[in-house]
Design goal:
This protein is of the alpha+beta class and 174 residues long. It has six helices and eight strands; from the N terminus they run E-E-H-H-H-H-E-E-E-H-E-H-E-E.
């Protein structure tokens, strides 16, 4: 495992993760937050997982798998996106499978990820974008020291002529 916490660990993607990612990435209810509108094939995901350049500096993104230590189950993902080495910032997204929510895993995964960004990548800030309607995620990010710094009005389309606001949150490494 790459980074260990008390309940979870973060690790690099493995070829054995393709089936799990195929199931998660093709859940249409998650597409609005992942900014996709089309399904992913297993071939595309296999290429993504086995890419020899799993380097945040090369791809400007990095996906880590969240593993529950007790069960050894892969329970979610952490995504670093829009990595900007010039301005020393990165976006952070999280997915925890619903069967494993409410156990503190998301908070620990975000905490470990933020520490990795600050202590290993030496970044100045981490940001997230969270739907204004997602009270649980907003509370989680704020609990971990992220501050709301702007409201993006009508940012995400969620239906025909329907939009939702999105909060931009930042955690700055002082």
């Amino acid at each position: 495992m790459f980074i260990h916490g008390e309940q979870i660990a973060l690790r690099a993607m493995e070829p054995s993760d393709v089936e799990l990612l195929y199931n998660w990435e093709n859940r249409r209810e998650l597409w609005p937050v992942s900014y996709t509108q089309t399904p992913f094939s297993k071939a595309v995901l296999d290429e993504f997982v086995t890419d020899i350049h799993q380097d945040i500096y090369t791809n400007k993104q990095l996906r880590l798998m969240v593993v529950e230590l007790n069960s050894k189950s892969t329970i979610g993902t952490i995504d670093f996106f829009e990595f900007d080495p010039q301005h020393l910032r990165v976006g952070l997204g999280i997915f925890i499978h619903e069967h494993f929510r409410g156990k503190g895993h998301a908070a620990e995964a975000l905490s470990l990820s933020t520490n990795y960004a600050f202590e290993t990548l030496w970044l100045k800030q981490v940001f997230a974008q969270v739907s204004a309607a997602n009270a649980a995620s907003l509370a989680l990010f704020e609990k971990l020291g992220f501050e709301k710094s702007g409201l993006k009005k009508d940012w995400n389309r969620v239906g025909l002529n329907q939009y939702e606001d999105v909060w931009f949150l930042q955690k700055v490494n002082d």
